[in-house]
Structure formats: structure tokens, C-alpha cells
Fold:
Amino acid sequence: MAPRVRIEDVAEAAGVSMKTVSRVLNCEPNVREQTRDRVMQAVEALNYSPHMFARSLAGNRTYLIALLYNNPSANYMMGVISGVLAGCETQQYNMLLCPAELEDDRLLRGVESLVARSQPDGVILTPPLTDSPALLERLKQLDIPYASISPRNQQDCICVAMDEPLAAQEMVRHLVQLGHRRIAHIIGHPAHGASDWRLQGYRRGLEEAGIAVDPELAVPGEFSFESGVAAARTLLDLPTPPTAIFAANDDMAAGVIQVALQRGLRIPQDLSVCGFDDTPMSEQVFPSMTTIHQPTDEMGRLATIALLSSLRHSEPPASLRVPHTLRLRQSSGPVPG
Structure:
């Protein structure tokens, strides 16, 4: 069995001190680029893997980032998880996946237990946890840095977000261009800021087209497949049902497609159905789903990198914007007749 490569071996190969190797591996500032490159070439050539426990002792860090979530859409979370993992890998951090309660007392007890047990260097928050004032205040009290994905309040915090009202407005514009005038919307979970933003965009799209907002065409959902099924039944049971349904996420849109097909409706000939997020499900259902691409993996990656950068350099919080894309597929078509 080959002997374990030590930090001393890397230092000797790079022609620098062990302290310099440690500073490079810990991504500390004020290291010359030439020196950094030389050390990393030695690390790669020797296949050196720093011992995580030794790193934590040397830098008073655990090299652990916790990802907190409470989201009914597994499809959405898989994208975020992939991005956070990619961000952690760039700095040799580990990720801890932590489900959390929404109710304040249980949420705070869970976070306090997490901090005491695992001592993460920082936390990534996903909606709706991003909007819990009690959670944000407790993280500050515990001196735990955090980054948020799509928070309602994007001031004075590390966050990554998309212009969701504009994206939803563009989806409605697409349906209007296809001739639809009776366009319904399934609203997301009331605790999520995204639900409000997408509803705003839906209303703006109707107003832009000179279509009156009909309250009976905007029905509640919870970002789950089951809530999409329930909402679809409500909408399709109306005396004058909609010709297009725009759900606030792909899971709910998939529920609409199931109900429509069960009732013998053809998609999109009889009913157009659109979602939001562009999760893998949107291409797996039949017919494939028109949706808004939200780069959840990139959002998770950017939030993680921004958080890790703030840990190293004590930088001021940054609010980052990511672009969206309208994905036109088979589930949307011209208005019937």
C-alpha cells in the first residue's frame, strides 16, 4: 500500500513552506497567483487529499455547509442540491442536507440542534425558509453566515434570484399570442415569495393584453402534484372552463395534465397547459411541457460560491440575478376553434 501523501511532500514539490500550502488549500487571500498555481500543480501531481479533520483544527472551521429546505417539489430541490454540491466541490467543502419544519418553534429548535451537533461554517436557505424572520434572526444570533435562494427580501443579504414576475408575464404573453383569452393560473404555496411573484406576472400579462382579471380563474395550490390535481378539477368544472392553465410550477402542471387526460381532453388541442421551473419532469410527461426554465442548479452553485467567498474575505453581501428562458414544447397550442 502506497504511503499517504503529506502536506510536507506538497510543500517540497512546490518549493514553498507548509504554511503557504495551507493558505492555498484554505483559499486565503494575498497569495501570488504564480505561487497558488505551483501549489495546485503539486497537489494534482501527487494526488494529495488534505485531511478534513486537520484542516478544521488548523483553520477553526468544519468545512461543512448545511442546506436547509422545506419544499414539496423534489424536482426543484434536486437542481438546488446539485448546484450546492458543485459549489462546495470547488473549495473542498462538504454539504449536509437538512430538512426543516416551517413552524417557528420547531424550526428554531432544529437549527439550534444542527449548529450544536455539526457546527457548519455556513447555511444555504431555500424558499420558504428564506422568508422566516425568526430563522434569520436566530442565525445572526448564532453568528452563522447564510445565503438565500429566491428570498422575498433581497436587500443586505447574500442571495441569488430570478425576475419571476417578468418570466410569468412572458408565459401569459405566449398564451395570448396563441389566441387564448380565458387563461387560468394555479397559485403556489402561500408561504413562498415565488407564489406572489408568479401571480403578479400572471396578472400583468393579462393587463398587458387588455384581458380583465377573473378571480375565479386564479385558484390556490401548494406546489405539489396533488394540489395541481385538485386545482385542475376546480377549474375544469367551471361553467366556462379555461382554454389554458398556467401552473406556478411543473409539479402542479403535471397534475393538470393528468386530470385533463382522464377527462378525455386533448393537450394542447382542447387545453393548453404550462408550468414553471423546467424540472426534469417537464420533459418526461406526455405531451412535453411548455415551461419557464429556472436555473436552480446554477442558483445553488452561485449561492454557495458567494457564501464561501464571504467566509474567506468578509465581503459585503451580494444580490445576484440569473436569467430565465421560455421553453416552448408540446403542451401549449392555439386556442380551440
In short: The radius of gyration is 24 Å. The longest strand covers residues 64-69. Residues 148 and 159 are 5 Å apart (CA to CA). The longest helix spans residues 296-313.
